[in-house]
Amino acid sequence: MTSDGRVARGDRTRTAVLDAAVSLATEAGLDGLSLGQLAGTLGVSKSGLFAHWRSKEALQLATVDRAVVQWQERIIAPALRAPRGVRRISALHDARIDFYAARVLPGGCFFATTEFEYNARPGPVRDRIAEAFRRWTAFLERLVQEAVDLGELPADVDVPQLAYEIDALGISAVMRSRLLDPDAAYRHARQGLLSRLRALCPEPTLLPEGP
């Protein structure tokens, strides 16, 4: 039991550190992360953190993985409770905008920040970020295809194109919300997807009227 307790405490500490790393990376970028910075932020010893991550790159990779888990827990999981089809697509987009609007992360979006930071920097960190984007894109395309299969979107809809547009609305919302009126940015992003889906859906009453 004592050993299990230590493992549980270690897991909680590791999660807390990585949550802090995700948050800090949205402001300073992944390249700005350091064990010393995290130790100072959390009030723990640098040597204690070094036991978990032996290099800056190991910390960066673990931070990307933690950001993926946050995304799954806060955005994907709530959306999956909605019925399949256009309502699930709408729920996913709303959960994403809600996450941004709640300002969970000080810099807005971990993935938007790190995409721009690493898009021209080859290496394991860029590869890990790219793989997260590939999985996210594949998930969006799967939801769109489900809506097509259910007859809630036309059979001839361009699935990759619509998935791209959905993601673009989310990225635009978080980027604009940091520099311009956030309420307007979120409202336009929500209305943008609703208008697109309502124009395509044979039964637009499945969708809410608007934000």
Low-confidence stretches: none
Instruction: Bin the strand percentage.
Output: under 5%
Rg is 19 Å
Please provide the count of β strands. 0
Distance between the termini: 50 Å
Structural class: mainly alpha
SS summary, helix count: 9
- How would you sum up the global shape? elongated
Helix and strand pattern: HHHHHHHHH
Chain-averaged pLDDT: 89
Largest sheet: none
Query: Helicity range of the residues?
Result: over 70%
In short:
The chain has 211 residues and is mainly alpha-helical.
Q: Would you give an account of this structure?
A:
The chain has 211 residues and is mainly alpha-helical. The chain is built from nine helices and no strands. The longest helix has 27 residues, at 2-28. The mean pLDDT is 89.
Secondary-structure map:
Elements: H1 2-28, H2 35-42, H3 46-50, H4 56-79, H5 86-101, H6 110-118, H7 124-149, H8 159-179, H9 182-200
Q: Characteristics of this structure?
A:
211 residues; mainly alpha; 0% strand
